[in-house]
Design brief:
By secondary structure, this protein is of the alpha+beta class. It has 6 helices and 3 strands, in the order H-H-H-H-H-E-E-E-H. It has a 3-stranded antiparallel sheet with strand order 1-2-3.
Length: 190
């Protein structure tokens, strides 16, 4: 019965870590997890367990491990020597946790890596003034109109319309070229 309770507490700890770290649930704190799941465990031991499990979840999540990768990783963790080793019970709990939470943790990580608001769409056109009705020639320069559709997750889009003359278009293209050169120089340095 004690093993069942220990397994439940560990699964609860893993889910609590996921709630706090990946699902932004601010109500789940380290203190709450200790008091609810491990009330008799000394603070230092709980902290060590908490940090170890949090680190393991992070390693698994960042690599987005599939079943085989997870099993190989956990096998390696159980074979470690010393305090960093994972028990077979902890490995089993991590495996069960990851099977049930992988897609949700992945979605959370993807959501955290996106800039908000995001560009949902872009449309553009160039307007030219044609000759007037009395046969006069038109002297106006072409105008580029750009419409950006911006939006945050779970919200309606906002639209921004920009108007550019030829000089402004050239400025934008020059700035984009400078940005590309900066990216290229950083990429070639690494």
């Amino acid at each position: 019965m004690a093993d069942v309770d220990a397994a439940k507490s560990l699964i609860g700890l893993l889910n609590g870590i996921a709630q706090s770290v990946y699902y932004n649930n601010t109500e789940i704190t380290e203190e709450l997890l200790k008091n609810e799941l491990y009330p008799d465990l000394p603070q230092e031991e709980f902290y060590a367990l908490y940090e170890k499990m949090k680190g393991l979840i992070k390693s698994i999540a960042v690599a987005d491990m599939d079943h085989e990768q997870l099993e190989a990783f956990l096998t390696a963790q159980t074979r470690k020597q010393g305090g960093g080793a994972v028990s077979s019970e902890q490995a089993a709990a991590l495996s069960r946790f990851w099977k049930s939470q992988r897609s949700r943790v992945r979605e959370s990580l993807l959501g955290q890596s996106r800039w908000e608001p995001g560009l949902r769409g872009l449309s553009w056109r160039v307007d030219l003034q044609t000759a007037a009705s009395r046969g006069e020639t038109a002297n106006s320069n072409p105008v580029a109109l750009v419409e950006l559709e911006l939006g945050r997750a779970d919200q309606d889009s906002e639209f921004v319309c920009l108007e550019f003359d030829e000089a402004k278009i050239n400025q934008v293209l020059k700035k984009m070229s400078n940005i590309q050169e900066s990216i290229d120089s950083i990429a070639h340095r690494s």
